[in-house]
Specification:
Chain A: Belongs to the binding-protein-dependent transport system permease family. The complex is a heterodimer. By secondary structure, chain A is mainly α. Helix content of chain A is about 75%, strand content about 0%. Chain A is built from 12 helices and no strands. Chain B has a 5-stranded mixed beta sheet with strand order 2-1-3-11-6. In chain B, strands 7, 8, 9, 10 and 12 form a 5-stranded mixed beta sheet that branches. Chain B is an alpha/beta fold. Classes of the chains: A mainly alpha, B alpha/beta.
Chain lengths: ~290, ~425
C-alpha cells in the first residue's frame, strides 16, 4: 500500500462509500436479520439457526434449487455453444456478416420482462396455432406443465443472451494473430485441428468471462421467470430468486427469505469463483 | 461595463432567492394546515380518490390530503413497510384482512368511536375487529358469483335465476353446451387455470367458509380445518373445467374476462362485480345490456351471494392527535355525509358497506346485483380474507389446487395437503 498516493484513495473513496451504503451494510444487516424473526418491520427475538433449519425442509426452496441448477447447466452449455457458433459464423468473411451480428445481438436490447410477455404469447398462441395446422401435438399446451415451462424459459434465455455471448467471443476471435493460423495451415493442420488446437486455447479468456456471465446470470434470473411463467403452474417453475422474493413479500416471512438469500449468495459466489479460478489456469499466453 | 451588469444581476438574483426562501418559511409557519397522507391498495380507484380529496380540500381549507395508490397485494405491503420503517409513515393506510391487522397492530388506531364505524353494516368490520375494538373501516362491499351473458341464456331458453342448486346448474350447462355452435360460444365457462386465486380464494371460501359461518376472523384463528364438504367443491371445479373454453391451464384473467366473456365467447364466468369496468372497456354496449350475475349454488346456502370487503381503512396511531382527527374526519365525511355518499356511489362506483344509502341507485348492473342482495340480507360472508394474508394461500392452497386442476394430483391428496398445511402453519403461529 506504500506506493498508493493520496489521490488513489481520493478517487476510490466515493465508490467505496457508495458500495458500502448500498451493498456491504445492507448485506451485513441481512445476515443479522436471517438469525432473527424479522417480519419486515421489527423483530422480537434472535432465533439462531432456526431459519436455516426451516429452509432445508422447505420443499419449495429445495424444488426451486434443483430447478435452477438444471436450468443453469442447460443454459450455460447452450449459450456458450450457440454463442461461439454464431461468433465463428459471423467472423467468416462473407457478405452480410455485419448485418447478422446486429440481428443476433438485437434480442439482448429488449428488456427481460417484455421479452417474457412476448414469448408467452408465442408459446401459448403461436405454438398452438402452428401445432393445430401441422398436427404436431407437442406444440400444444406450452407452459402448462413443468417440462414445457422449463424449456420455455431455456429458449427465451438462450435466444436473448446468445447474441451477447457472441460479441465477447468475436472480440477474442479477432485478436488471434493471423500468422499462427497460417503457420498451422502450412503445417497441414485440418480445419478441426486448427479450431481445437489453436483457436480454442487462444480464446480461453473469453471462455472464462462467458462462463462467469452465463453462470451467474442463470442463477440470478428473475424477470423472464416472472413474466413468462410467474413460477406456475403450481410453483413448479419457480426459480431461486423468485422463491426468495415470494417468501418475503407473499408469505411475509422476511427472516426466512433473508436466510435463503444468504445461502443463495454463498452458492452463486462459490460456484462462480471456483469456475473462474479453474478456467484461469487453462488460459494460455502467446 | 458588461461585467458590472452581470454582478448586479447576480446580486439581484441572490436577494430574490433569499426573500423567496424567507417567504416560504413564513408561509409554512403561519398556516396551520394539517397534512393527511394516504397510502391505499385499490389502484384502480386512484384517480377518483384524488378527485374526491380535491373536493374535500375545497370545503375544508385547513386540511391537505396527499394520496398514493399502490396496486396488487404483492406490492402494497412492502411499500407500506418501507414507508413505516423510513419514518415516512402514512396517516391513513389500507389493510387487506386479519393477517394485515395483526401485522400492523402497533400502528392501527381504534376506530370504533367514529361515525363511520357506527354506521358500518353488520358483519363488515368483523375481520379487522378484536375485543370489541374496530381497527379498520371497510372501503366498500363486493360480491362474486357467476357473471352471465344475458343474451346467450335467453337464446338457450334458460332463466338464470332458476339455477339455485348444483343439479339445476349442471342441467343448464349441458343444455347450453349442446347448442354451443348455434349460440356462437366457444365454451359455457371460461376457467382461468393460471389465476390460482379464482379457485383458492373465491371458490374455496364458499365451501371452507361454511364451517366458520363465513367469518374470516374465526377461520384465521382456527387451529385446524375440517373441510367436510370438499366433494361439493370438487364437483364445481370439475364442471367448470369440463365445460370451459380450452385449454384451461393457459388461460389467465385477461383471457377469461377480456378475450372470452366480453367478446361473447363464454356463457358465464366465475367472477365479481369488479370486472364491470373491464367489460365496459372492451364493449360498452355489451356491458350495459348483456351482463348479469347469479350466486354460485352451494348446498345449504342457496340463493345467497358471497359479499364482503377486500380492503379496510386504518388510521395511524403514531401520528399526532390533530392528524388522527383530520384523518377520521375525512373518512367520516366520505362515508356518512351527503356529498361524500354521492362520491362513494357515483364517483367510486362502490357498493356501500354502510347504512344510510337507501334509495340510491348503483351505477352499473353488477354492483346493482350486489347492492340488492346485501339490502335483502341474502348474503354469505367472505371467509377467504382469513387466509389470503397467510403463507398457506400462496404456498399450499394455490399450488395444490392448480395441481389438481391440471390433473397431476388426486382430489383426496389435495384435500389432505390443504388440511395438513393449515395445521402446520397455525401451530407455528401460536409460539
Amino acid at each position: 500500500m506504500k506506493n498508493r498516493s493520496l489521490s488513489f484513495w481520493l478517487f476510490l473513496t466515493p465508490t467505496l462509500i457508495a458500495l458500502a451504503l448500498v451493498v456491504f451494510i445492507p448485506m451485513l444487516e441481512g445476515l443479522f436479520y436471517s438469525f432473527t424473526d424479522w417480519d419486515g418491520l421489527s423483530f422480537t427475538k434472535v432465533v439462531g439457526f432456526q431459519n436455516y433449519a426451516t429452509l432445508l425442509q422447505d420443499k419449495a426452496f429445495v424444488n426451486a434449487f434443483w430447478f435452477t441448477v438444471a436450468f443453469v447447466i442447460v443454459t450455460v452449455i447452450m449459450l456458450n455453444v450457440i454463442g461461439l457458433g454464431l461468433a465463428l459464423l459471423v467472423t467468416q468473411k462473407f457478405k452480410g456478416s455485419n448485418f447478422l451480428r446486429t440481428v443476433f445481438f438485437m434480442p439482448n436490447m429488449i428488456g427481460g420482462l417484455i421479452l417474457g410477455f412476448i414469448w408467452q404469447f408465442i408459446f401459448t398462441q403461436g405454438f398452438s396455432a402452428l401445432g393445430t395446422t401441422l398436427h404436431l401435438g407437442w406444440l400444444n399446451n406450452w407452459l402448462t406443465n413443468e417440462v414445457t415451462g422449463f424449456w420455455g424459459l431455456v429458449i427465451v434465455t438462450v435466444w436473448q443472451m446468445s447474441g451477447y455471448i457472441m460479441i465477447i467471443y468475436i472480440a477474442y476471435l479477432q485478436n488471434i494473430p493471423n500468422e499462427v493460423i497460417e503457420a498451422a495451415k502450412i503445417d497441414g493442420a485440418s480445419a478441426w485441428q486448427r479450431f481445437t488446437k489453436i483457436t480454442f486455447p487462444m480464446i480461453a479468456p473469453a471462455f472464462t468471462v462467458c462462463m462467469f456471465l452465463t453462470l451467474s446470470n442463470g442463477f440470478k434470473i428473475y424477470d423472464q421467470n416472472l413474466s413468462l411463467t410467474n413460477g406456475g403452474p403450481y410453483n413448479s417453475t419457480q426459480m431461486l430468486a423468485m422463491d426468495i422474493v415470494n417468501t418475503a413479500y407473499n408469505s411475509s416471512n422476511f427472516s426466512l427469505a433473508e436466510a435463503k438469500a444468504i445461502i443463495f449468495f454463498i452458492i452463486v459466489a462459490a460456484i462462480s469463483l471456483l469456475q473462474v479460478f479453474y478456467n484461469r489456469k487453462r488460459e494460455v499466453d502467446l | 461595463m458588461k461585467a458590472k451588469v452581470w454582478k448586479r444581476l447576480g446580486l439581484l438574483a441572490m436577494a430574490a432567492g433569499v426573500t423567496l426562501s424567507l417567504a416560504a418559511c413564513g408561509n409554512s409557519g403561519s398556516s396551520k394546515k394539517v397534512k393527511v397522507t394516504i397510502l391505499q391498495g385499490k389502484v384502480e380507484s386512484n384517480k377518483q380518490f384524488k378527485q374526491i380529496a380535491k373536493e374535500y380540500e375545497k370545503t375544508h381549507s385547513n386540511v391537505d390530503i396527499e394520496i398514493t395508490s399502490i396496486g396488487g397485494g404483492t406490492q402494497y405491503n412492502p411499500v407500506l413497510k418501507t414507508r413505516i420503517s423510513s419514518g415516512n409513515s402514512p396517516t391513513i393506510f389500507s389493510l387487506a384482512g386479519p393477517a394485515d391487522a395483526k401485522q400492523f397492530k402497533a400502528y392501527t388506531a381504534d376506530l370504533s368511536k367514529t361515525k363511520a364505524a357506527k354506521n358500518a353494516l353488520p358483519g363488515t368490520v368483523s375481520a379487522v375487529s378484536t375485543n370489541g375494538k374496530t381497527y379498520g373501516l371497510p372501503f366498500n362491499v363486493e360480491g362474486y358469483g357467476f357473471v352471465y351473458n344475458k343474451d346467450v341464456f335467453k337464446k338457450a331458453g334458460i332463466d338464470p335465476t332458476s339455477l339455485t342448486s348444483y343439479d339445476k346448474l349442471e342441467a343448464a350447462v349441458k343444455k347450453i353446451d349442446s347448442q354451443k355452435d348455434k349460440l356462437g360460444i366457444k365454451g359455457v365457462f371460461a376457467l382461468p387455470g393460471k389465476e390460482s386465486w379464482i379457485l383458492s380464494d373465491h371458490l374455496m371460501s364458499l365451501y371452507l367458509g361454511q364451517e366458520f359461518n363465513g367469518n374470516a376472523q374465526k377461520l384465521y384463528n382456527s387451529k385446524s380445518i375440517k373441510f367436510n364438504n370438499n366433494a361439493d367443491m370438487k364437483q364445481m371445479i370439475d364442471l367448470q373445467k369440463q365445460y370451459s373454453v380450452q385449454p384451461v391451464m393457459q388461460m389467465d384473467y385477461a383471457g377469461q374476462v377480456n378475450q372470452n366473456f366480453s367478446q361473447g365467447k363464454a356463457a358465464m364466468i366465475q367472477q365479481g362485480d369488479w370486472i364491470y369496468p373491464t367489460i365496459e372497456s372492451v364493449d360498452s354496449k355489451f356491458a350495459k345490456n348483456n351482463v348479469g350475475m347469479i350466486p354460485i349454488p352451494v348446498k345449504g346456502e342457496e340463493g345467497k351471494l358471497p359479499v364482503g370487503t377486500s380492503l379496510y381503512w386504518a388510521v395511524n396511531k403514531k401520528k399526532t392527535t390533530a392528524e388522527q382527527k383530520a384523518a377520521t374526519d375525512f373518512l367520516d365525511w366520505l362515508y356518512t355525509s351527503k356529498a361524500g355518499k354521492k362520491d362513494v356511489v357515483n364517483t367510486l362506483h362502490f357498493v356501500p358497506a354502510y347504512k344510510g344509502y337507501e334509495g340510491m341507485k348503483m351505477p352499473d348492473a353488477l354492483t346493482q346485483v350486489v347492492y340488492e342482495y346485501s339490502k335483502d340480507n341474502k348474503t354469505i360472508g367472505w371467509a377467504f380474507p382469513g387466509y389470503t394474508g397467510t403463507s398457506w394461500d400462496p404456498d399450499v392452497a394455490q399450488p395444490n389446487l392448480q395441481k389438481y386442476l391440471s390433473g397431476k394430483q388426486s382430489w383426496d391428496k389435495t384435500v389432505e395437503n390443504l388440511k395438513d398445511g393449515w395445521k402446520k402453519q397455525q401451530s407455528n403461529v401460536s409460539n
